[in-house]
Amino acid sequence: MLLRDQRDQQDDPNGEERARAYLLKLLAHRPRSRAEAWERLQKKGFSAEVITAVIGQAEQKNWLNDALFARLWVEDRLLRQPKSRRALQRELSAKGLEAEPIQQALARAKIDEEALAEGLARERASRYGRLDPQKRERRLIGLLRRRGFSSSVIHRVLEKLSQNL
Dihedral of CA 95/36/105/56: which sign? Predict the structure, then answer.
């Protein structure tokens, strides 16, 4: 083990190759934001110079692209786990993205929050069919709040649902 580490350090004295290999491993799992990649490489113990060089190369090759990452994140969330515009914005900010790529991704998605909330509530209401109406409503309100929908959207959706149930 020691010999292999010594050989690796001789072949790659500053660790750039190892950092690049680690970044590619991360990107094979899922797309990453620039900030996420930086954080993961830093946690792995690479120097700031190495991280800057590797991330710069990855951006040149379009392996790291915050605008594309934001767009893919929003599209995936809307398909798999619908959330409000505000919740998506919070998630992307937590991923270290700047405001501009976030706003572009959200604008491109053309999110109809009421339709999203209604679809989610209808799907869940069918699961809660045997519950008493008050309990079903409390659960739907909780679900929609956790997904970031505003009180006004929740109220309108529940009105529609109550008319159809």
Answer: positive
* Residue 9 to residue 28: CA distance in whole angstroms: 25
95 in Cβ contact with 30 (< 8 Å): no
Q: 71 with 56, same domain?
A: no
How far is it between the farthest Cα atoms of the chain?
A: 73
- Residue 13: per-residue pLDDT: 64
The pTM score is 0.80
Whether 88 and 48 share a structural domain = no
What would the two tokens of residue 92 be?
């992307």
How many CB atoms lie under 10 A from the CB of residue 87? 17
Looking at the structure, do residues 43 and 55 belong to the same domain, yes or no?
yes
How many domains, the chain? 3
- Give residue-wise pLDDT tens across range 61-92: 999 999 999 999 999 999 999 999 999 999 99
**Whole domain around residue 134: which residue ranges?**
113-164
